[in-house]
Write a structure and sequence with these properties.
- This protein is an all-alpha fold and about 350 residues long.
- Among the domains are: about 95-200, Orthogonal Bundle (Cyclin A, domain 1); about 210-340, Cyclin-like (Cyclin A, domain 1), CATH 1.10.472.10.
- The chain has helices spanning about 5-15, 45-55, 75-90, 100, 110-125, 130-145, 155-170, 175-180, 190-200, 210-220, 230-245, 255-270, 280-285, 290-305, 315.
- Helix 5 (about 110-125) packs antiparallel against helix 6 and helix 6 (about 130-145) crosses helix 7 (about 155-170).
């Protein structure tokens, strides 16, 4: 005699097993060619990302939904959280002149080429903006203490993005994907070895705040008086933040200042006749317009392609409909001086 459950198990075991091989869409390779760096999302946000992957019709989170806004956090904790982040951005930042003092082969142009290519890689594998910013942060921090040859710079780039993807993404690409994206210039063992070298060099301190960390809070405050968030303004701020990755000069500026400057300039581009800074933005960021002037002017030059004009990946990315064509928005060629005066 056998129980119904035993009979069912027996029948199941006897049934032939059908294995369905998962089909992966073929990815187009992007090759760099020859050359002349917040904590992860919460569990609820991870579930939301997974649901979006399973059902493409679900609304994807907007750029400011990656972390809770200050209105969603108990107010007594807000100042403590951002005081901690401001402290961390100073502790875990790269050397501002590492190319001149540490590197012997890597140049400013080579760094910009690498960052521009990583923007393409992030788009190819649909990686989040946080992953891109962390990747560049890891690259700069590693180059601050380790001389790297010209031939190994791309290896450093893909290995840094691999680590950042593991840290930020729900479903990060595998090592072999990052080998393929270099047209198999590097083997799996080389990528894994460089990954270990990066982790050791950074002392496994992977959670440093980036421009995006502060940008989300400043966007939330800037949109606080609106019934619905202004997606054009959000995407334009993100576009300016991504452009800052190309410029080596931005390393000498704290990420929080770059984020505040991106919001300042985005508001100016959208409404040039209105003062782009407010008391609420000054209060939450801790910065007056005069403190943002240098960075705002750098970002404005990047926006007009006065700097890094030959690097197209970021600009092409934000010319598309899904980003509201913000890279095509017109802007006055100059910012009035009185906008930088203390209010």
């Amino acid at each position: 005699m056998e129980t119904r459950a035993a009979a069912k198990r027996k029948a199941t075991a006897a049934a032939p097993m059908v294995v369905v091989e998962k089909q992966h869409p073929k990815r187009q390779r992007v090759v760099l060619g020859e050359l002349s760096n917040l904590p992860t999302a919460t569990q609820n946000q991870r579930k939301q990302k997974l649901q979006c992957r399973k059902n493409p019709n679900l609304k994807k989170p907007s750029p400011t939904e990656s972390i809770p806004s200050s209105s969603q956090i108990d107010q007594p904790y807000v100042s403590d959280i951002y005081e901690y982040l401001h402290d961390m951005e100073r502790k875990r930042r790269p050397m501002v002149d590492y190319i001149e003092k540490v590197q012997r082969e890597v140049t400013v142009i080579m760094r910009a080429i690498l960052v521009d290519w990583l923007v393409e890689v992030a788009e190819e594998y649909k990686l989040h903006s946080d992953t891109l910013h962390l990747s560049v942060s890891y690259i700069d921090r590693f180059l601050s203490v380790n001389p790297v040859s010209k031939s190994k710079l791309q290896l450093l780039g893909v290995s840094s993005m691999l680590i950042a993807a593991k840290y930020e993404e729900v479903d990060p690409p595998r090592v072999v994907a990052f080998c393929n994206i270099t047209d198999n210039t590097y083997h799996k063992k080389e990528v894994v070895k460089m990954e270990a070298d990066i982790l050791k060099s950074l002392k496994f301190e992977m959670g440093n705040p980036t421009v995006n960390t502060f940008l989300r809070r400043f966007i939330n405050v800037a949109c606080d008086n609106q019934k619905a968030s202004n997606l054009q303004f959000e995407f334009l701020s993100c576009y300016l933040a991504d452009l800052s990755l190309l410029d080596y000069d931005c390393l000498k500026i704290l990420p929080s200042i770059v984020a505040a400057s991106a919001v300042f300039l985005a508001r100016f581009i959208i409404a040039p006749e209105v003062h782009p800074w407010s008391s609420s933005l000054s209060g939450c960021s801790g910065y007056q317009p005069v403190e943002l002037k240098e960075c705002v002017l750098i970002l404005h030059d990047l926006y007009f392609s006065r700097k890094a004009a030959s690097f197209k990946a970021v600009r092409e990315k934000y010319k598309h409909h899904k980003f509201k064509f913000v890279a095509r928005l017109p802007s006055p060629p100059h910012i009035p001086r009185h906008y930088f005066e203390t209010q």
